Each structure stands twice: as C-alpha cells, then as structure tokens.
Amino acid sequence: MWIFLLPVIRIRGSLEIEMSNLKGLAKLTRKGDLQRKIDEKTDYINRLKVGISNMVRNSGFENMNEFLLTFRECRNAYTDYQRQYESWKNAYRKPDTPTHKDEKFPDKLARLQREAAENQNSISRQTKNRGAR
Predict the structure, then answer these.
(1) pLDDT value, residue 96
(2) Which residues 6+ apart lie within 8 Å of 103 measured at CB?
C-alpha cells in the first residue's frame, strides 16, 4: 500500500469502528452521517490510487509493481553507495586534519584569510619557477 494513503485509510478505519460501536438511538441518528463520511474517504482513496497509477504510467512504467521494483532497486543501490562511501571516508580520512566546527566567526575569517594568502604565495612562486626553466 502506498504510504501517503495510510492517514486517510486510518481515518476511514476509525470511522468504521465508530459506526460498528454505535448502540441504541445513536445508531439511528449517527449511522447515516458516519456512512457518508466513510463513503467520501473511500472515494478519495480511489481517486488517489487512479491518480498515482496515471502518474506512474506517464513516467514510463507499465504498472505500479514495476515502479515499486525499480524504486526498491534504486533505494538499495543508494544505501549501498552511502555505506561504501562512509567506509571509504573512514579508511582514507587524514586523522591529523583539524576540524573547525567550534571555531567562532572572527577566528574562522582570520584563518581563511591566512590560508588564502598562503595559497596566493604558493601560486606566485610556481609561476616564477616556470619562467626559470
């Protein structure tokens, strides 16, 4: 079942339970109103199912089962990729790389300016060395 239909289905189920629990005079007065609400929810669910099926077909899938199989394959591939990426990152991460998470803004600005100046100096040295060859 599609996950976004679950809230509507739960509401319809609670209405059906409420209608089955009616006793006496309430059964005569509330039954029609509850049945109307149940019918509205059922119609709404059916319209959603048809709309979803049309969207799936317009996207190039033959039916909902084909879409769900493709979706699960993609989700599994993405999960595997994330797992492999995390293991790679843990294996090849430089342990001496400083982390700057708790750094305040003025300190971060000063650090970035220093790094930019160092990079600029190394770039200018490299261009001077090329002419010396």
Answers:
(1) 59
(2) 111
